[in-house]
């Protein structure tokens, strides 16, 4: 009995020592990731700054949950995920700086959690460098504190792919299965079609290898995230097929269209390149884009030599399918569209960089390390330069919208009111007005409805200076605000009792 009791005590002590060692190891791994997330959050607040006003797409998402402005038209491609994400702040406060700080903190926390799912799949140093590569891109820093979906699709992709790899390696890991479902749900919650493209390789692999539990978790997550979008399709868009058709039409018609050159042009800081004309950015701005697939290929070779091909090949395959529609299926570009692909490429690329630094022997190792360090420093400098120009340009344009809204108030166009015409949606948000369009992607009213509204509310039409107004506004008095012709509908005389 004494020997049995001693054996039990020994096993308990060993288990406690193992648990303590594992906890200490996890803490050592987590600290660099937490530091990276903290630097990313601070960089957003310093470089992008919370005073940056809301952009066009942000206004659409935020206005759905605010109480101080009317909801903007919500077109077929959009999903409600971003609106729900910002609701804890936007539902009760109109403060843009507060919303920016909230999103910056949330995006930093999300990056930390996403990178943690890759623990054990790659060394900590690879995860830190990979996370830093993704976080230091100007497009990541710019959109991290914004109410936009693409960064969150990227985070969902990292979580879902990382947990899928863990679930394959550890069949009994229930937490990994929950992570697969959560990442897929987050992607589908933000952009259902993007979630499908990202997860195609995972679905195919799970079916081919009969990994039924990861497959079930993946399908359940996609379904959970997409259900609101599907329900809304039947309630407000005439069905799922019609909504998909409308979404394709609004995006210029999905099909074989090469947009690689458009994406290159957008790398200079253009938030939306539609139509995408003009000259290419300086070669230093686009150089990293050409180096990225080369390093990804090297990362694949490194993984093959180390006999861990799957954990590198799978994220690369998901990155390729995530990028496919935005490189070859639409006729315009926005740099944020490729954020999920950049996030998935970052870890294999970081693995390749560490290989370049650590493999050379003797006197060549310091040379290789110096070359990689110089290259990364130059890349960071370019990203910050593009970010500064992008922030300055967007700050000016959003201040112009706010100034125009103030001038409209002085002309008597005050809430409740309606704006139509050029940039009516963003200016309407800043003015506290509804926005209406009789044609185009945001068509939501008719000329007859606008005239009826003008009988009871202030209504104004906006057009570029010298532009031709629509028939319903031609007789309205015209005022010049900056580079806009503003036609304000005459106020109807009050009715006599």
In short:
The chain is mainly alpha-helical and 497 residues long. The chain is built from 18 helices and five strands. This is Integral membrane protein.
Description:
The protein is mostly helical and 497 residues long. Helices cover 66% and strands 4% of the residues. The protein has 18 helices and five strands. The protein has helices at residues 2-48, 56-63, 81-90, 96-116, 124-135, 138-143, 150-169, 174-190, 192-208, 212-236, 240-250, 260-266, 283-305, 310-328, 339-358, 364-410, 424-431, 447-454; strands spanning 418-421, 434-436, 459-464, 478-481, 484-488. The protein has a five-stranded mixed β-sheet. Helix 9 (192-208) runs antiparallel to helix 10 (212-236). It is globular and about 80 Å long.
Poorly predicted regions are none
Helix content: 55-70%
Query: Largest sheet at a glance?
Result: 5 strands, mixed
Shape: globular
Strand order of the largest sheet: 2-1-3-5-4
Number of helices: 18
Strand content bin: under 5%
How far the N terminus sits from the C terminus, by CA atoms, comes to 102 Å
Strand and helix order: HHHHHHHHHHHHHHHHEHEHEEE
Mean pLDDT over all positions: 92
Rg (C-alpha, Å)? 26 Å
Secondary structure: number of strands = 5
* Multimeric status of the protein: single chain
Structural class: mainly alpha
């Amino acid at each position: 009995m004494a020997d049995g009791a001693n054996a039990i005590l020994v096993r308990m002590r060993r288990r406690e020592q193992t648990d303590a060692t594992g906890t200490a190891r996890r803490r050592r791994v987590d600290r660099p990731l937490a530091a990276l997330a903290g630097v990313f959050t601070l960089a957003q607040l310093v470089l992008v700054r919370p005073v940056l006003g809301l952009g066009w797409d942000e206004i659409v998402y935020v206005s759905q949950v605010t109480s101080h402005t009317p909801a903007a038209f919500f077109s077929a491609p959009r999903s409600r995920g971003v609106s729900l994400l910002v609701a804890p702040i936007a539902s009760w406060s109109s403060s843009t700086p507060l919303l920016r700080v909230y999103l910056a903190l949330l995006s930093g926390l999300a990056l930390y959690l996403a990178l943690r799912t890759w623990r054990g799949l790659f060394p900590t140093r690879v995860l830190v460098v990979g996370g830093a590569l993704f976080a230091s891109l100007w497009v990541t820093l710019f959109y991290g504190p914004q109410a936009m979906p693409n960064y969150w699709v990227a985070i969902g992709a990292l979580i879902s792919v990382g947990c899928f790899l863990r679930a394959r390696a550890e069949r009994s890991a229930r937490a990994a299965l929950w992570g697969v479902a959560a990442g897929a749900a987050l992607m589908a919650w933000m952009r259902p079609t993007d979630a499908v493209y990202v997860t195609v390789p995972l679905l195919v692999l799970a079916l081919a290898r009969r990994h039924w539990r990861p497959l079930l978790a993946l399908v359940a997550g996609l379904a959970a995230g997409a259900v609101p979008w599907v329900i809304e399709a039947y309630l407000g868009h005439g069905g799922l097929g019609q909504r998909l058709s409308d979404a394709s039409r609004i995006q210029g018609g999905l099909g074989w269209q090469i947009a690689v050159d458009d994406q290159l042009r957008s790398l200079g800081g253009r938030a939306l390149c539609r139509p995408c004309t003009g000259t290419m950015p300086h070669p230093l701005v686009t150089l990293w884009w050409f180096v990225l697939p080369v390093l990804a290929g090297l990362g694949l070779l490194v993984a093959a030599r180390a006999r861990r091909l799957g954990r590198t090949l799978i994220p690369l395959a998901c990155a390729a399918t995530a990028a496919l529609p935005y490189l070859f299926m639409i006729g315009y570009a926005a740099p944020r569209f490729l954020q999920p692909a950049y996030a998935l490429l970052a870890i294999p690329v970081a693995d390749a960089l560490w290989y370049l630094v650590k493999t050379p022997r003797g006197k060549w190792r310091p040379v290789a390390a110096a070359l990689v360090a110089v290259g990364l420093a130059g890349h960071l400098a370019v990203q910050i330069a593009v970010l500064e120009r992008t922030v300055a340009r967007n700050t000016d344009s959003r201040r112009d919208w706010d100034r125009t809204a103030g001038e409209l108030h002085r002309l008597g166009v005050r809430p409740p009111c309606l704006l139509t015409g050029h940039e009516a949606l963003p200016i309407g948000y800043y003015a506290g007005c509804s926005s209406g369009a009789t044609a185009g992607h945001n068509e939501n009213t008719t000329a007859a409805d606008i005239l009826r509204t003008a009988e009871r509310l202030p209504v104004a039409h906006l057009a570029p200076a010298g532009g031709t107004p629509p028939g319903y506004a031609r007789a309205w008095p015209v005022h010049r605000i900056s580079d806009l012709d503003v036609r304000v509908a005459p106020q109807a005389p009050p009715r006599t009792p």
